[in-house]
Amino acid sequence: MKPYEFKEHTADIIARAYGDTLGEAFAAAARAMFDLIASGAEIRMVEEHKIEVESIDIEGLLVTFLSDLIVLHETENMVFDQFQVTLDGDRKLSAVCRGEKFDPKRHGGGTSVKGVSYHLMEIEKGDNRGPCHVQVLFDI
Amino acid sequence: MAWHGPIKKVDDCRFRIESDYRSDAMKKVDLRMRVPGLIYADQRMFDQIVKDNSPDQVANVATLPGIVGFSFAMPDIHHGYGFAIGGVAAFDADEGIISPGGVGYDINCGVRLIRSALDYDDIKAQVKPLIDAMFRNIPSGVGVGGKRKLSRAEVDQVLVRGAEWAVSEGYGWKSDLETTEENGAIKGGDASVVSENAKKRGAPQLGSLGAGNHFLEIQRVDEIYDSVAAAAYGITHVGQVTIMIHTGSRGCGHQICTDYLDTMRRANHKYHIPLVDRELSCAPASSEEAQQYFTAMKCGANYAWANRQMITHWVRESFEQVLDEDAHRLGLSQVYDIAHNMAKLEEHEYEGRARRVYVHRKGATRAFGPGHLAVPQQYRSVGQPVIIPGDMGSASFLLMGTAKAMRETFGSTCHGAGRKMSRTAANKMFRADQVRAKLQEQGIYLRAASRRGVSEEAPGVYKDIDDVVEIAHNSGIALKVARMRPMGVVKG
Asked: Into which CATH architecture does domain A4-139 fall?
């Protein structure tokens, strides 16, 4: 079972992502985002990118982490499917992201994610799907 | 999450949320509405609007400092984040705020309408090759960039000079600039306040359609409501062929919004502005943070105008290739280009007082009336053209701005049909091949970059554009000029 699911929203799309730790839940949210972008196609582990993020709080950290991945997608033409996320308190995060170059033949036809919204965001201890969960709305 | 708050029906096209309304969120942070909310809708549409609780967002915006008059919602309103989509709010230039959420991620998402000297009968056999040529010549879809990769220095030029940069590089005609809002570049852009990430995202994407609800259409005029105004806009007869371009500032604008939402969240702490919703984050209009965002937003807007300008050029090239005739001889002149995601510093007379206000239009269109100096000279006697794109199976509208909109809504009106069904529900309900076949039955040829885009943008997911426009027309905040039906569509 995928560690994330999508929820209905009139104009955009909401992802709920789960993990044993908050870092895993963040990673699952990132996987959900690339599921949308690459239209659910398989993403191979060919390249590795490291990113470091700072913000003023945990919500800002999640938004900035995902936004920085969109930047990598659009500027380096990357799509990712595996993330090792390490949280250092509420204001610092580092992540190792594995994936490959976007291949229109295999990954094409997906959804363009314009931005990551704070709206309806949840970062909490989880429910029966996992000990931690995050909810994030993608502007598409 | 439906709306259960109190609402007062003002007349057949207006509903009012009184300023004594306090939602749970407002009670929690002890915030009151500073002005009432005003929703443009008829009873039937209102019943649809309350389903997604967007009236609460209208009420939330009314709590922001310096808001003048009303927190407005246009008939195409639907649930956004912070600000509803279809929302208009004017904030006093001295006492008010500026908020990136009131503009949205796609800064200067907008619409351009091109007319022609062609008639439906002239080209009906060539719609398919014309759409195929446009699909080939204009990059669209996810992960597909523009044909011209810009250098960093060129990006900086685009951010300041907008559509004029594109014309100077050979994309389109000088006359296009005269019929573009702000002549295709808002003055005061400064590339130094735009992040490297925004420039990096923008550099490879200029001159591309993107995905989502963006499209190119070949249309034919199927009804003219006001022949005098239509003639002023160069629309002369039923059957006349027009072309519509709907896209925005691509990754460049999205990143500017992302960057400044972060800046504004920090500013919010600094200036102690209490918020009912985090997505309303903002800063005092005169603060450094707000002014920096406003400058960066101008850059995003200018990028979008350059984008639509380059696409216009390739649309003309496509027609030239297929019809083997010069674009000038085909009469492919621009009617107008208008933004529907933007904040602007404007002067308005409101309730007898001259006011300088930052008008935020998020999914709303400027609709300046006759005589306004911002309206191109050739249209000034009738008012500014307002372009309202519909879904790919129905119709789009050309309207004109009115004196009433100037008095009532800071010169603003609706921007489109507005979604009523989520994308996930649309994916379950509509299959791309069925949508395509249905359109084909209606004589509409579709080329799309993705099947998913076709399902998610199926005609049934939007409100009825005729209803939306009828409310704008009946309330007088824009008047109908002409309706155009699609003949062929390119979807991102």
From this structure: 3-Layer(bab) Sandwich (3.55)
